[in-house]
Design a protein that fits this description.
Largest sheet: 11 strands, mixed
Number of helices: 13
Strand order of the largest sheet: 1-16-3-15-10-2-9-5-6-7-8
Strand content: 15-25%
Shape: globular
Number of strands: 23
Helix content: 25-40%
Distance between the termini: 29 Å
């Protein structure tokens, strides 16, 4: 495959593969429903200096894909395996279960949400020594909206609570109590910036007034910035606005523009707060003397989310999970429940089409960072290699020098679908010429780089075929011009999906 691979944007760091005398530690940081280009190292407006530093001293992957929905992504990152046809958890083990026999202490903080650990009581049973969080959703201000668990048991507090801060408090507690003679793995899965938009006033104020130009104008500005930074190649194109939102924005009264600006400021404040908390975790690693020996991964579970809005614009709820909202306090406070809507989600996913739940690039593409000071040969690289969520666990096991087990107890395991990126981190090559299968809700995609096939078993939807090398924004559907390529990729898709549940089997191709 001939394509540009790397762009250097900082000085090289000293190189030493497995130079550390002690085994490596690992932290996997995942945010929820954050768009492709929201953080500043991807061209966004949110000030994320700590995440940016991880990229500047690591590798920033701009051609990374997840599932378009949180729970299969979380299963895949936790096991290195695909969702169906693999019968999780029977056919696989978690990262924690694989690492523990090698002496690792294992910690889980945040959100589970998946088949591997379908409720938080399961976390201690899947290899984690300490755990804090809940399975999904709820309020950022009130831990009682969805039950929070500590080490598999209900947890309550009367102290002030803000979810992202409290998650970080427990991550730091687990690390501070860790015996540094042993290596550790920490999975830190923040809920933010998943709706509801709950943001501290101070964090929201940083961004208030910055979005009054509207999503269409700012999307063009962000796209230009991304190209200038090298995040996007020179031949990249900006997909059309969602639902003619430039005209829709201009038609809004001034007070609506100010309100929707405030909602987006709150969304950005949530991400800013996560970055602040990542800074706290990094400071704890420094205090423990393990910063240089700790490999850190950062990603989002899927693209930006358009769910729950009022058509293009933010939407409000008065009740969710049995909790009522009366909007008596500040926007983003505990009495509000707001979603950003499709126009701002489209902006978050610049330059791509579609959103979370969709297999177009807006649903699949998110930033991915690997920070590994003692492993990476050339830090500060921007990589356009086609990597995917199933690659995280194989990479961790390879760096930890822990073999993947053939059996776990009495269970015979299936191999992981992901590939280890360790040779690539060390300056070598990884053969990434492999099929990438991703799907959700009977919509399927197969990527055999540079080709991407999209098919749906809903209605009579026609196939879509794109050349990602030249058209990653998916503007030129080549399916009608290249029926042979469609048939070739469809055959690969059908073979892979054999044995899936009936409603998830790959659909037959519909003619144009």
């Amino acid at each position: 495959m001939k394509r540009p691979l790397l762009i250097t944007f900082s000085l090289l760091l000293p190189f030493s593969v497995f130079a550390a005398e002690k085994p490596l530690n690992f932290i996997n940081i995942m945010v929820d429903d954050m768009g492709y280009s929201d953080i500043s190292c991807m061209g966004g407006e949110v000030q994320t200096p700590h995440i940016d530093r991880l990229a500047q001293t690591g590798i920033l992957f701009t051609n990374y894909r997840t599932y378009p929905k949180c729970f299969p992504t979380r299963d895949a990152i936790m096991t290195g395996m695909d969702a169906p046809p693999v019968r999780l958890p029977a056919d696989g083990v978690t990262i924690a279960e694989a690492l523990k026999p090698a002496g690792y202490r294992t910690y889980f903080v945040g959100k589970t949400h998946g088949a591997v650990m379908d409720n938080f009581i399961m976390v201690p049973k899947r290899g984690f020594d300490r755990s804090f969080g809940n399975e999904d959703g709820g309020s950022y201000w009130d831990h009682r909206v969805k039950q929070t668990m500590l080490d598999g048991k209900p947890w309550h507090t009367e102290k002030p609570f803000f979810k992202s801060d409290t998650h970080t408090d427990f991550a730091i507690q687990f690390l501070s109590e860790h015996d540094t003679s042993k290596p550790f793995f920490l999975h830190l899965a923040y809920h933010a910036p998943h709706y509801p938009i709950h943001s501290k006033q101070a964090d929201t104020k940083k961004y208030t007034g910055k979005f009054l130009a509207g999503p269409s104008v700012m999307r063009k500005q962000r796209f230009a910035r991304m190209q200038e930074m090298g995040i996007l190649p020179a031949n990249a194109k900006l997909s059309p606005d969602f639902s003619e939102m430039e005209q829709a924005w201009e038609a809004l009264p001034a007070e609506k523009k100010e309100y929707y600006d405030l909602i987006m400021a709150g969304y950005c404040g949530m991400i800013d707060n996560v970055d602040q908390n990542i800074g706290r975790v990094l400071a704890q690693l420094e205090k423990m003397g393990v910063r240089e020996n700790t490999v850190i991964f950062f990603s989002s579970d899927n693209g930006g989310c358009a769910e729950g809005g009022n058509n293009n614009w933010p939407g409000e709820k008065t009740e969710r999970f049995g909790h009522s909202y009366d909007y008596s306090g500040f926007i983003g406070g505990p009495t509000t429940h707001i979603q950003v809507g499709a126009a701002w989600a489209n902006y978050s996913n610049t330059p791509f089409r579609k959103f979370k739940n969709d297999v177009q690039e807006g649903g699949l593409s998110v930033p991915f960072i690997i920070h590994a000071p003692s492993v990476i040969k050339e830090a500060g690289r921007i990589s356009r290699e086609p990597v995917m969520v199933m690659d995280v666990m194989p990479t961790i096991l390879d760096l930890a020098r822990v073999p993947y087990p053939e059996k776990f107890g009495e269970r015979v395991l299936k191999p992981m679908q992901g590939l280890s990126l360790q040779p690539y981190l060390a300056g070598g090559k990884v053969d990434l010429d492999r099929p990438i299968h991703l799907f959700f809700n009977r919509n399927f995609t197969l990527i055999k780089y540079p080709w991407k096939l999209i098919v749906s078993s809903k209605g009579n939807a026609a196939p879509e075929l794109y050349d990602l090398e030249n058209d990653r924004s998916e503007l030129n559907n080549l399916a009608g011009q290249m029926p042979e390529k469609v048939a070739e990729l469809q055959k690969v898709m059908m073979e892979y999906r054999e044995g899936m549940p009936l409603d998830q089997k790959a659909p037959k191709i519909q003619k144009n």
